[in-house]
Amino acid sequence: MISLDISKGFDCIWHKGLLAKLPIFGLQPTLITWIASFLSGRSISIRIDGFLSRPHSISSGVPQGSVISPVLFILFINDLLSSLSSSIFSFADDTYLSSSFSSNPQHLAYSHVSSHCNISAALLINDLTNIERWSKDNHVEFNQGKTKQAVISHKHHQDFPLVFMNGCELDISSSFTQLGLSISSNLTWKPHIHSIAKHASQKLGFLSRACGCFSPPQLLTMLKLLLGSRRLTQKSRSLLQLEL
Is the dihedral of CA 122, 168, 4, 70 positive or negative? Predict the structure, then answer.
């Protein structure tokens, strides 16, 4: 699996290129004109120590926080997603490329496993070459330092060929986080559980420090908000009362 990082994802959308692609999706000319108006006439300024620079017009990027921005981003990179031979998963500007195969160590010789690894690596390298070509044509830059690879397997001995992008070997990561789920290279849940426990500990630490400032009902309300739940089990209520 390869985690692709597009440098300044939403800021890199080339307006002219995006507008040229929209008719392919069946958008009406009036809607395309509205989107063009939405993107045009924008400028940026920089404020440092109270001093504001002159405004500079921009020809790329979509507004951060806008509801339509993630949709425009997906439409902009859609032709890239459909041109790759490997499996690809994209969530807004988070994109993952993967090639997989299954092996039974009792029935598959090591040489066959190695052959499958070479085939998977070749597919990924070919797709990365297509991604490099697409990025040049669409004025998009992929962050080489943040683009990483991982071999996800139960096997302790992982002899996987090197994967390169732009002539440089990709760094190897022990885990990926996808939509809040941590996937480790050895298929264990430890990194994910550790992340959840650390997050919960930080929230409970806040409540512990706030005990002297709020009443038990107020702390209970804050606990519900922090846990993202409207209801607590009776056991949770009892533990909270005991803590108070």
Answer: negative
Q: Give the DSSP H or E segment for 70.
A: helix 69-81
Q: Which residues pair with 44 in a beta bridge?
A: 56
Structure tokens at 122: 């070749």
Residue range 32-90, pLDDT digits in tens:
999 999 888 888 888 898 898 888 888 788 887 788 888 888 888 888 877 787 777 77
Please give the C-alpha separations between residue 71 and each of 56, 60, 93, 94, 238, in angstroms, as whole numbers: 25, 15, 11, 13, 45
Strands (DSSP E) found in the chain = 2-5, 43-44, 47-48, 51-52, 56-57, 87-91, 94-98, 148-149, 164-165, 168-169, 171-172, 175-178, 181-184
- From the number of C-beta atoms within 10 Å of its C-beta (0-12, 13-18, 19+), residue 91 rates as exposed
CA–CA–CA angle 122, 118, 3 (5° rounding): 55
Amino acid 156: pLDDT: 59
Phi-psi region of 190 (alpha: psi -120 to 50; beta: other; left: phi over 0): alpha
- 10 closest CA partner among 140, 109, 128: 140
End-to-end CA distance of the chain: 47
Q: Look up residue 48 and give its two tokens.
A: 């440092």
Of residues 242 and 69, the one with the higher pLDDT is 69
